[in-house]
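[recover] target loaded
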């Protein structure tokens, strides 16, 4: 029987991330002419234009939200938040780029440097922090993880002790002969 708990846990986390984006993405736009979408209201046409122009590797199930900064709302320019990071293109002449959430965790100013002219970088950074927090352990999960690690360590220590005792007994037998 296949353990589906991991899959359900992953789906639950994606759902929580989508809720965060649903509640916050509007505040991340710089202009009222920019269109902000979250997963549930993202039109396929806009998603596929974004995919074609700057988010080529993303499947729709991995999308959290999108800010469209193109003049006519086509989706060709803007940023797409996925479960792993942010895909973006600032203008038709610019190249498509990507920022992984793990890179944002290491460099808190990267969003402002790279996306400050496309979105409200402060609000986007706040939203990204909340998205990344979903993947962190809760206190109970952390305690369970620590307990599992301690249990595994105890088992290894016990086996090493048994092996050392066996070696000592063999050595004693050899030395007594």
């Amino acid at each position: 029987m296949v353990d589906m708990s991991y899959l359900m846990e992953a789906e639950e986390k994606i759902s929580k991330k989508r809720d965060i984006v649903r509640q916050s993405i509007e505040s991340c736009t710089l202009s009222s002419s920019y269109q902000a979408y979250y997963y549930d209201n993202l039109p396929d046409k806009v998603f596929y234009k974004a995919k074609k122009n700057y988010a080529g590797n993303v499947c729709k199930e991995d999308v959290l939200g999108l800010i469209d900064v193109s003049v006519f709302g086509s989706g060709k320019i803007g940023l797409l938040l996925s479960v792993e990071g942010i895909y973006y293109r600032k203008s038709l002449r610019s190249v498509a780029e990507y920022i992984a959430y793990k890179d944002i965790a290491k460099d808190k100013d990267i969003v402002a440097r790279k996306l400050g002219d496309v979105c409200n970088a402060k609000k986007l950074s706040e939203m990204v922090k909340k998205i990344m927090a979903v993947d962190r352990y809760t206190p109970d999960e952390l305690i369970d993880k620590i307990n599992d690690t301690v249990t595994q360590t105890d088992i290894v220590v016990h086996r090493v002790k048994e092996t050392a005792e066996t070696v000592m007994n063999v050595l004693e037998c050899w030395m007594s002969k």
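[recover] notes: The mean pLDDT is 88.
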